[in-house]
Design brief:
Oligomer: single chain
Mean pLDDT: 82
Helix content: 10-25%
Radius of gyration: 30 Å
Order of helices and strands: HEEEEEEEEEEEEHEE
Strand order of the largest sheet: 2-3-6-7-5-4
Length: 216
């Protein structure tokens, strides 16, 4: 029995050591957060100079591009804030559109671009349509739908015609332009054969101004 006693004591001490080590490890794991919860405050988590974000179609062909001098990402709403942005839409079959502003916010799962400050949208001329330029302090671009709109005062130049109003919506797929609450519409004779006037009956803001709509 005396010969077995040291072996039994060693076994007991080993068991005590294993149990104390397990307890200490479990206590440390519960006391210290190894993966702290995500902060929901609006704080930047990454940034990039010469920011570029490119979207392609199923065949890998570029259809939308957003670039700028500086881009910041905010994880709370998964948005990108871009300085001196340039948004380019070049979907197949549609005229190329280029939007610029002082800053832009890309959000809604990258499905919406809000151009803010001296915003300008240029649509290149097509085979049967004149070039178009629209100016406002804010434009919202929906890249997937190829649509641009604003609820602020806007000035539109299409060919030799000009339009001013509060609120504007342009669909690049149909090349249909709606200017709501129009205060000044000046259709040049050279553009009258390319345009037809119709009421803006589907104006979500309730406007009812006649607006030119080019035919393809």
């Amino acid at each position: 029995m005396k010969e077995r006693f040291p072996a039994l004591m060693a076994l007991v001490l080993l068991i005590i050591l294993v149990l104390s080590t397990w307890w200490a490890a479990n206590f440390a794991q519960n006391a210290i957060q190894t993966d702290p919860p995500r902060r929901m405050t609006h704080e930047m988590d990454s940034w990039s100079k010469n920011f570029v974000m490119l979207r392609t179609d199923a065949a890998g062909k570029p259809i939308n591009r957003l670039e700028g001098d500086y881009g910041r990402h905010f994880p709370d709403d998964d948005s990108y804030h871009v300085t001196n942005p340039r948004a380019i839409g070049q979907q197949a079959g549609d005229p190329v559109t280029i939007g610029t502003a002082k800053k832009a916010i890309l959000d809604d799962h990258n499905n919406r671009i809000t151009m803010i400050g001296d915003a300008h949208v240029h649509r290149q001329a097509g085979p049967k349509s004149s070039a178009m330029d629209a100016y406002s302090q804010k434009f919202v671009i929906l890249p997937n739908d190829d649509v641009v709109y604003t609820d602020l005062p806007a000035h539109v130049v299409r060919g030799q015609s000009t339009m001013d109003g509060v609120g504007m919506r342009y669909n690049n797929k149909t090349q249909q332009l709606e200017v709501y609450s129009a205060s000044n519409v000046n259709l040049a004779p050279a553009d009258t054969n390319k345009a037809t006037a119709r009421p803006a009956s589907n104006d979500p803001a309730g406007g009812g101004a006649n607006t030119p709509s080019e035919k393809k």
